Request: fold
Amino acid sequence: MINSGRLSELLKELPPGVKLVAVSKFKPPEAILEAYNQGVVNFGENRPQELETKMEQLPGDIRWHFIGHLQRNKVKLIIRRVSLIHSVDSVRLAAEIDSRARELSLVKDCLLQIRIANEETKQGIEPGELDSVAGEIKAMPNVRICGVMGMATNTPDIDIVSKEFALLKFYYRHLKETLFINDDHFCEISAGMSSDWRVAVENGSTIIRVGSLIFGER
Ligand SMILES: *Cc1c(COP(=O)(O)O)cnc(C)c1O
Reply:
């Protein structure tokens, strides 16, 4: 059902230190299990309800990642079992995660999603607001910022994509050298999807989020 040949090539090609999150949104539990049996442990979903349903049916040692726009009223549905939230794009969302995490006595690992594409539709923190947003979120005791996430423009033009990923790395370095200078947890760049993961890895990505390459078109 899944493209297991492409998956094993991808796993072989991935440089050490770069993690694969297999994006399984809209795909059935059987497909996830196939990838899991090939050695994938990290899976990404972008709809809270779908994530909840799948978690119940699949092995307990899968590490689930939340990768899409997250509404504040859905935080409580996913916070307990999700290992990393890639899409923190506002102080208000982070504050909700912080208070839900505090109720459960846990600290939630999150990435700051930064807007690197020019497309209007792409979510993320505006670069001009990055320092103030990151500073406010860093002060929240039950949220741990582990790095940054970004999505490049959906274009076949590699130069554009490459420039955007380079920009994301620049923001990462900037934060790493300022706000997070003494913070070893701040070490991840989540960038790259099926069409552009190689470009992302060349630009310092440590987590790639690959869906259709493994699971087929949605
Ligand atoms: C769907 C999705 C992906 C995976 O996209 P593919 O092109 O199928 O690899 C990665 N990241 C995010 C945020 C997504 O929503």
Summary: The chain has nine helices and eight strands. Residues 158-177 form the longest helix (20 residues). The two ends are 13 Å apart (CA to CA). The pocket of pyridoxal-5'-phosphate is lined by residues 23, 25, 46, 67-68, 151, 193-195, 209-213 (CB under 6 Å).
